[in-house]
Specification:
mainly beta, four-stranded antiparallel sheet, 53% strand
């Protein structure tokens, strides 16, 4: 069973940057895709970005792609989410997730809070 631990969240002002990290253990990291999701207060969890085991990336929208970058370091069993030009609407708990053999996300971290003040 894979374990995921996120870090890097915090409280920042609009326009600032943050880099989230997610360290995985318990499974061969390079063999599966990784994703980032977020859940804002009172809203459902939503997809943010993902990176395949081969490094192909996908984002929820073009506008998000302009500000966020997902990357991975297989040597460190870590996936990152670089977030630039943060906006108050980016405030949410951010979760990383790991794909299982079926291609669906079957493991989740505990989440890290990102709060952006205006």
């Amino acid at each position: 069973q894979v374990q995921l631990v996120e870090s890097g969240g915090g409280t920042v002002q609009a326009g600032d940057s943050l880099r989230l990290s997610c360290v995985a253990s318990g499974r061969t990291f390079s063999a599966y895709g990784m994703g980032w999701f977020r859940q804002a207060p009172g809203k459902e969890r939503e997809f943010v970005a993902e990176i395949s085991r081969g490094g192909v990336t996908k984002y929820s929208s073009e506008s998000l792609k302009d500000r966020f970058t997902v990357s991975r370091d297989n040597a460190k069993n870590t996936v990152y989410l670089q977030m630039n030009s943060l906006k108050p609407e980016d405030t949410a708990v951010y979760y990383c997730a790991a794909e299982g053999t079926s291609g669906a996300y079957d493991a989740w971290g505990q989440g890290t809070q990102v709060t952006v003040s205006s």
